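Task card 7
Instruction: Convert sequence to structure tokens.
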Amino acid sequence: MKLLMTTIGRDNPNTDLALRYLYSVISDAPLDVSWHSFETIQDNNEIYSAIIRGRYSIVYFHCNSENEHRIEEIIRMIKMVMPSVAIIVGGEPVSQAPESYMTNNPYVDYLIIGEGEKAWFHFVKSLVLYKFDFENIKGFAYRNSNKIIINEADEPIDMDEIPFPYEKTDLVGDTVFYESIRGSADRTTYNLYSGTEVRSLGLNRVCTELRYFLVKKINKVVFLDKWFNYNTERAYRIFEYIINNDNGETCFEFDINGDNIDEETVRLLSEAREGLFIFNIDVASTNAETLAAIGRRENVYQLMYNVTKLLQSAKVRLNISIVAGLPYDTEAIFARSFNKAYGLAEGSPLTIKSLTLPRGCLLRKEAKKYGYLFINNHPYSVIANDYMPATDLINIKMIANIVEKYIGEGDFKESIPRMLNDTGVKPYELFSKLANYVYDNRMEDKLYKKENLCRIMYAFANDLYDEDSNPLQLEILQKVLHSELENMVSEEDMKHFERKGWSLAV
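Output:
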């Protein structure tokens, strides 16, 4: 009996890690078991052909919102030529309405609901023992004659019962994705929430597994935990362990709740090596009415104070984000949030995220309340709502692209503040004007080279600066841009830039 565990999208961290967990619980089973993540760029025929050549008896597909429709098509193709192959699926999108999913996908034989490790273990065990007692597997759906049977849900799993997912699978690439909690502490209405309580790995186990990554000298360990610091004492102990065992090479990335950063943690982080920690902080909005509508603390000033203390006292890299398209946010209100977040970031990367409404999130269920128009399938992008028409959202998306190019990597830390100071415009206005300049002049295809970013900025400044302004300001800005470019590109690229000059003409 040959069993394949697979998915599409090796670059999807949640899906890749979920597949590793599932493989780890049955890797010692007396079966011919293999696992493989196909690349997103591989087409359906290529994936289908590879599976058919493998002559598997059972194929498990792990689904996410990006790949579920492709997987449905591949399953159909497999069943047409090899109807005896048992097909089982799992993952968040297929778990939400299992009976409806299996009704609409008659080629699927079995389905794992919710957290899959225990159900998957008992399913494989039933095959090995030839018991086929599927009715006793909690969190499982199957076909019996012409009926679809949905078993009762299983209890949330104790994370310490799950094997370390990298013990039986190879580390691939420079980045490792890791999970120390389940059940998101972030209850924001535009995020998916399973409804289960937050559960965590024991501290000793977390430290042991982090030690494994440190010894292997992995470049980056990314925690997939939503609001890793939901428990400030637990977070403190893990930060402390990382600092005390720093190998000088590995860095660690976390999604952090800015409200939960206390003074003691700030003092601890001030002892860390620069570059050891990366914190992602979702500000969402600074508008109290908006924050209340999405289930966040309405007073954003505590968060801003905590982040400011972190920036002043620690050497942590911060990635700040805000979200466009939230309830009650007009473009003018969003602009105020952007300006506050820009001031908070102090040169740290700032990202504008466009709101999405994936299946299962509470805000999608409240869509009519706020007049949301959105794409029903992946990527579930919001098109408009009662407070922000489609034209405003399109405009913000253009600005978001420009913001990503110019401050997403923190490259223009001196030139942009200088332009703001020289002209007196606010950050949102500056990036709005720059976006219009780029798109009106059809320069979008020139945004992918650092040299062109500098040229565009300089050409834009020529138009932006008033005729009556000090002519030295533009000359100084040019020198600042030149200096920044030297830090962005190689010596050879810099020589090429010098030969070509500041003109955008080819």
